[in-house]
Amino acid sequence: MVKNLNYLFTSESVSEGHPDKVCDQISDSILDLYLSKDPVARVAVETLVTTDLVVVSGEVRSAVEISKELIEKTIRLTVKEIGYEQKGFHWEKIEVKILLHEQSSDIAMGVDSDGNVKDEGAGDQGIMFGYACNETLEFMPAPIFYSHKILKLLSEKRHAGLIDGILPDSKSQVTMVYEKNKPIKADSIVVSTQHTENCSQDEISQIVKKVINESLPSELLKDETSYIINPTGNFVIGGPVGDTGLTGRKIIVDTYGGSAPHGGGAFSGKDPTKVDRSAAYISRYLAKNIVAAGISDKCTIQLSYAIGVSKPLSIYADLGDNGSISEDSLVEFLSDLVDLTPRGIRERLGLNKPIYKKTASYGHFGREPDQYGGFGWEKLDLVDALSNEFK
Question: Containing H/E element for 15?
Answer without folding.
Answer: none
